[in-house]
Amino acid sequence: METVVLQKVGKALGMRASRSRTLRSETDLIPVIRSRVAAKTVSARLREFQLTEDYLLHLFNISGSTWARRKRGESLMSRTETESWVRYLLALFMAEDVFGSREAALDWLRTENMALGDVRPMDLLDTGIGTDSVIAELQRIESGVFS
What we know:
About 60% of the residues lie in helices and about 0% in strands. It has nine helices and no strands.
């Protein structure tokens, strides 16, 4: 994973610029996942990432009432929810890097993909295996190998 992608993830997670610049590999995100992210941080970024709360509920596998509780006050998301958010950000920023723009990246994430079993890549990001498949497909596209 490219450092620039990891730094964008760090910034989106609310890390200070000086700290996000220290991200060199995906394993550097583990302490961030373990310390968890504030639900308010994610909620504030929905418009920027053109996401709906319904998609987040799917991504985090939680109910609307749980999400509403998380957003109130200073609640932190669970580790599992934080990891799901990190997976989404990794895929989004890698797609941006591959396709050159946020618009093109979102377009790709929202379009059914034959190489991924005719499923929208964004619908696979709720599991580790699904995310690995999406990232692998982006790497194939980046290297010029089309499935």
